[in-house]
UniProtKB/TrEMBL annotation:
One of its GO terms (molecular function) is metal ion binding. It is an enzyme of class 4 (lyase). This is Bifunctional aconitate hydratase 2/2-methylisocitrate dehydratase. It comes from Thalassotalea euphylliae. Keywords: Iron, Iron-sulfur, Lyase, Metal-binding. Residues 182-406 form the Aconitase B swivel domain.
Length: 937
């Protein structure tokens, strides 16, 4: 059977079984057959082959794109005649192929001697921005050799005509609202984790957004309001909490956006999304990638009494009242010039934050990638011509307050900023390009990152990146047909691209399913680094890390840069003494509860960086705090450590990087060896006193300061989804934090210890508890299932060497076996201990899940509806989050413990210890200096 026949068979089954259109073509071999059928005038499949070639072939650096570009070149040169594809149309098709082979063909034609071909080729090239070093080197060489067309193209690039000649953003954009949910809308609603396997198949994945009924309601609104854009709204909540989810934005754009190109299927851009409390920070970055609009509606406000005091309800929460309606079907007008939102002629909201000069550039260019590449291309052309580039793009926003010190995150941005004109230190609000040191790609979004890299014609990792890792943790639990289809292909692509991969395409080293955040935390060896990762929990305890969509990860891999504003910071410090029976997880939850109480329900963490003065807590343990900041809705987190602790953390990172090297994971570029060298240099700088551990200046300015009182934390603290709250907007948030006594004698159906929130110490705690309980009771029996998934393989190895794994195995009814991995997910559980393969497991909800309606107590991170546990017909599923000792004891008892039971179970166990630093974790005011690196472009 030919590839084309197989494709037709796939098309038929896809239509009959799923109701979908033909899958876009990325295979050169298949497209070659299609081209032969186009050339054959009498071929029965010629007409449909033309349609596949023109409208259904993926652009960029896919192998199909290379074949398509080559055939278009033959048509332009008159070597092949296709009546339906004139040379003019061939040029138009090349103009929509973004880069890679299409740029190579256009350069061949433009730099040739045939003026009838070189002129139109040059005109198309002037519209393109996705050029790489090989492309620009060809242009510069031709220009220096006296080629007039090359000079003409460079002059156009220097003026950035690829941007200036684009249509301006419409002054008035009419929208019709669609309330997608009341309360916070998680990215799981827009792109469910359990459907992660289909994210690279955009049309198929689009079927999982919200519900089929919601999709049809959106379509109905579009028919009812032609010419208006449907705006998805989070009523009384924040839009896009939880993850970056490029797939979520893609789904919204698929149903409510605009087609990016008539010749590329299912790639839509420019969606409009909104929330009463705005858009979650990393989700908003993802919206920018598509040139979309994200609005902070502020349509519900705190009610105040006659004296101006906030009115609260019986629970002490502020009472909200509606400022204006955004009920489904409401027509509103966005005035992009005035930066206001109108209902009819009445102004209802200021939306200036959605229309900064930079964001309007993204909208005009069709997304942030084009702006990033455009700036680099303009800079290159001006340098090649020896001219000053005219000011076309909005200047980097450089804010500097004389006499004001720098926060820790401001220092990191100053150190890594590129292309900055001023020598003065930059403060929050500045918008700059920064060098990215470490990049992480995870496996459920990785296939999309590969697509994005192909679409922007990138073929190798930027030399500016110190290290990058592709994980296999999100699909580690079950080696099923979906994982087998996606994971090897992903690992092969990333390995060839220059990324360190969890799985070796050549099978040299054992596949590693370690949790990506733990690996990134280990390969980050500088507290002044910037890290970009494809997951909201990319929040390292060294440097500052930002969770990002798959596209931003791709651009960081391809360019070694990212553009973003310097965020505001909130300072978190501690006082008092941590009780011996408390786990550090309890301190983390209490921080959120005390912050909300201190600021009368206002979440001052949202959209800002939390600078936590953690002092003497090692990076492994401190990660428990930084990881949870995603649930606090913070943009990122920075740990302020003392010199000795930082050195110890870097030494630990070195040892784990060496383990990776010993396994054979390093690549030809010796990336991992290079990280050890960087680690040694950082330790030397700290030891000498030349570059001590990162600390803010004593006169730095913070948006807010939170002091956590450890003395008041006397019970284990649980984050509760509050599934039965009468106010639906308050369900499934992470803001309800309750002491364990609230749950006295309440049954527990399943316990889970795992995900990125645990470290080696948690595994040791389980072993110590087993020894305690064994000593007290003679044996251990589980009255509820306990699932344990260590975060990394090296932790398992260390536990085996130290003797703790032995007692875990003793009481387990299942132990993972890499030689015979599970082929399907569990649907029911026994009252035993399951020792699962390292990875995300239940926390992801895409493979393993609890039984519907279960009350789950877990160490993981997500409270979203249906994520860990779905509802049953009789009962809502609940995913309550707490510390490792609480989870273990609850499963042994089959219920939540009393305080007496809990303190007896942890007696003598070395829980994660933390004491507030006694020394000031700041530098003198005179330390406010900006140390900037050179512009790599």
């Amino acid at each position: 059977m030919s590839l084309y026949s197989e494709y037709l068979a796939e098309i038929k089954s896809r239509k009959e079984e799923l109701g979908l259109a033909p899958k876009p073509i990325d295979s050169a071999e298949l497209l070659a057959e299609i081209i032969e059928q186009i050339k054959d005038q009498d071929n029965a499949h010629r007409e449909e082959s033309l349609n596949f070639f023109i409208y259904n072939t993926l652009p960029g650096t896919t192998s199909a794109a290379g074949t398509k570009a080559k055939f278009l070149k033959e048509i332009i040169l008159g070597q092949v005649t296709v009546a339906e594809i004139t040379p003019e149309f061939a040029f138009e098709l090349l103009s929509h192929m973004k880069g890679g082979p299409s740029i190579e063909v256009l350069l061949d034609l433009a730099l040739g001697e045939d003026a009838s071909v070189s002129a139109p080729a040059a005109d198309v090239l002037k519209t393109q921005v996705f050029l790489y070093d090989a492309d620009t080197a060809r242009l510069e060489a031709a220009y220096k050799a006296g080629n007039a067309v090359a000079k003409e193209i460079l002059e156009s690039y220097a003026k950035a005509e690829f941007f200036t000649k684009l249509p301006e953003v419409s002054e008035k954009i009419e929208v019709v609202t669609y309330v997608a949910g009341v309360g916070d809308i998680s990215t799981d609603l827009l792109s469910p984790g359990h459907q992660s396997h289909s994210r690279a198949d955009r049309e198929l994945h689009g079927q999982c957004m919200i519900t089929p009924e919601a999709q049809q309601e959106i379509v109905a609104l579009q028919k009812e309001h032609p010419g208006k854009k449907v705006m998805l709204v989070a009523e009384k909540g924040t839009m896009g909490v939880g993850s970056s989810r490029m797939s979520g934005v893609n789904n919204v754009a698929l149903w409510a956006g605009e087609q990016a190109s008539p010749y590329v299927p299912f790639i839509n851009i420019a969606p409009v999304v909104a929330g009463t409390n705005g858009i979650a920070p990393i989700f908003l970055t993802t919206v920018d990638v598509t040139g979309g609009i994200g609005l902070d509606l502020k349509n519900w406000v705190k009610k105040v009494d006659a004296d101006g005091n906030t009115v609260t309800d019986a629970n002490g929460d502020p009472v909200l009242e509606e400022a204006y309606s955004v009920a489904t079907g409401t027509v509103l007008t966005i005035d992009t010039k005035a930066k206001k939102l109108f209902s009819g002629s009445e102004e209802v909201a200021d939306v200036a934050s959605a229309f900064t000069p930079q964001k309007q550039e993204f909208m005009k260019a069709g997304g942030s990638y084009a702006v990033t590449f455009g700036k680099k291309l303009q800079t290159f052309a001006a340098q090649a011509l020896g001219v000053d580039a005219p000011v076309v793009y909005a200047a980097a926003k450089e804010i500097s307050h004389e006499g004001q010190g720098l926060t820790a995150v401001e220092k990191i941005f100053n150190r890594n900023a590129v292309g900055v004109a001023s020598d003065a230190p930059l403060h929050a609000g500045s918008n700059v390009r920064v060098k990215v040191n470490i990049v992480g790609s995870q496996d459920t979004t990785g296939p999309m990152t590969c697509q994005e890299l192909e679409a922007m014609a990138a073929s190798t990792i930027s030399p500016l990146v110190d290290g990058a890792f592709q994980s296999g943790c999100h699909t580690a639990s079950v080696w099923d047909s979906k994982a087998k289809a996606n994971t090897p292909k992903l690992m092969a692509f990333m390995n060839a691209f220059g990324v360190i991969t969890a799985r070796d395409p050549k099978g040299v080293y054992h596949s590693m399913t370690d949790v990506i955040h733990k690996v990134l935390n280990d390969i980050t060896v500088d507290d002044r680094a910037i890290i970009i990762g494809g997951d909201s929990h990319t929040r390292m305890s060294k440097g500052v890390a930002f969770g990002a969509d798959s596209g931003t990860v791709a651009i960081a891999l391809a360019t070694g840069e990212s553009a973003m504003p310097i965020p505001e910071s909130v300072k978190v410090t501690f006082k008092g003494k941590m009780a011996d029976h408390m786990d550090f997880r309890d301190i983390v939850h209490a921080t959120q509860a005390q912050m909300l109480k201190q600021f009368e329900g206002e979440n001052v963490f949202q959209g800002r960086v939390i600078e936590v003065h953690i002092g003497t807590l090692l990076a492994d343990q401190a990660f428990t705090f930084t990881d949870w900041t995603a649930e606090m809705k913070a943009k990122a987190s920075v740990c302020i450590s003392n010199d000795e602790t930082l050195i110890e953390s870097i030494e630990l990172a070195k040892s784990r990087i060496q383990i990776m090297i010993d396994k054979g994971m390093d690549n030809e570029a010796q990336t991992l060896a290079g990280l050890i060298k960087l680690a040694d240099e950082r330790i030397a700088g700290i030891t000498s006193g030349e570059t001590p551990a990162l600390a803010p200046d004593e006169n730095a300015k913070y948006y807010a300061e939170v002091e956590v009182d450890l003395d008041t934390i006397v019970e284990p603290m649980i984050a509760d989804p509050d599934v039965n709250n009468e106010d639906v907007s308050k369900r499934y948030t992470h803001d309800v934090i309750r002491p364990v006594s609230f749950y006295n004698d309440r049954p527990v159906d399943l316990g889970f210890v795992g995900s990125c929130m645990v470290h080696k110490g948690d595994m040791q705690i389980i072993a110590q508890m087993f020894r305690n309980l064994e000593k007290q009771n003679g044996s251990i029996e589980f009255n509820a299932p306990l699932v344990v998934a260590p975060p990394t393989y090296n932790i398992v190895d260390e536990l085996k060497a130290e003797g703790d794994w032995e007692i875990l195995e003793k009481y387990s009814g299942f132990v993972f076996d890499d030689e015979n991995p599970k082929g399907e997910a569990r649907k029911s559980y026994e009252n035993i201990l399951y020792l699962e393969r390292p990875g995300c497991n239940l926390c992801m909800g895409n493979q393993e899940k609890a039984e519907p309606g279960d009350t789950v107590i877990a160490t993981s991170t997500r409270l979203f509806q249906g994520r860990v546990v779905a509802d049953s017909a009789e009962k809502k599923g609940e995913s309550l989050l707490g510390s490792t000792p609480l989870v273990v004891l609850s499963t042994i008892l089959g219920r939540f413990p009393t305080m007496d039971e809990y303190t007896a179970a942890v007696e003598g166990i070395d829980l994660t210890r933390f004491a507030p630093p006694t020394e000031a974790m700041t530098t003198p005011a005179s330390g406010a200096v900006a140390v900037k690196i050179a512009d790599p472009s």
